[in-house]
Design a protein that fits this description.
CATH superfamily: Cobalamin adenosyltransferase-like
Number of helices: 6
Shape: elongated
CATH architecture: Up-down Bundle
CATH topology: Hypothetical Protein Ta1238, Chain: A
Number of domains: 1
Distance between the termini: 65 Å
Strand content: 5-15%
Strand order of the largest sheet: 1-2
Largest sheet: 2 strands, antiparallel
Radius of gyration: 19 Å
CATH class: Mainly Alpha
Order of helices and strands: EEHHHEHHEH
């Protein structure tokens, strides 16, 4: 990427278009712009998560993920360009295995809640899934998209689910301590009998 931002308010997008990293202008409704926007939103949600009390290892991991998401966005910004490295995927796989090993197996569904940090991780997880769908749709439309962004977002959403469970157990705000289990109407009626 040759150009860095030196001016934010350029007014070049007033006509409903925006520039890609290769200089091409596309409508702001283009699937590539949607995918880039979803990745940016995900990164912003992680920024909010970082404003919460977090275990130091989780904080460092999330900060690394933010940088990798910026690389992912840069890759999406330039059709055919490769910026997200294979070690980024490996890092997610290793983190997923590490944190998942600390957790009890799930026997039922959980709700996105508990501590504030866990709830924020769940919001980021949902946005990661949306970003993944946007990248898949972009690729299915015939646009040049490498496999790494899709794979990264898929693994990241799984990791964020696991981190939400870790953060509930860390209970740094005193509002967590465990997963919030879903109780279906069926389970409630069985308990009442």
């Amino acid at each position: 990427m040759a150009n860095r931002l030196s001016q934010i308010a350029t007014r070049t997008g007033d006509d409903g278009t925006t520039g890609l990293g290769d200089g091409q202008r596309v409508p702001k409704t283009h699937l590539r712009i949607t995918a880039m926007g979803d990745v940016d939103e995900l990164n912003s949600h992680l920024g909010v998560l970082l404003a919460e009390p977090l275990p130091n290892d989780v904080r460092e991991l999330v900060l690394t993920i933010q940088h990798e998401l910026f690389n992912l966005g840069g890759e999406l910004c330039i059709p055919g360009y490769s910026l997200l490295k294979e070690d980024a995927l490996l890092r997610l796989d290793e983190a997923l295995a590490h944190y998942n090993a600390q957790l009890p197996r799930l026997a039922e569904f959980i709700l996105p809640g508990g501590s504030r940090s866990a709830a924020l991780a769940h919001v980021a997880r949902a946005v990661a899934r949306r970003a993944e769908r946007a990248v898949v749709e972009l690729a299915q439309s015939g646009e040049a998209v490498n496999a790494a962004p899709r794979q990264y977002l898929n693994r990241l959403s799984d990791l964020l689910f696991v981190l939400a469970r870790v953060l509930n157990r860390a209970n740094l705000d005193g509002l967590g301590g465990d997963d919030v289990y879903w109780k279906s109407e069926r389970l409630a009626s069985q308990a009442a009998e």
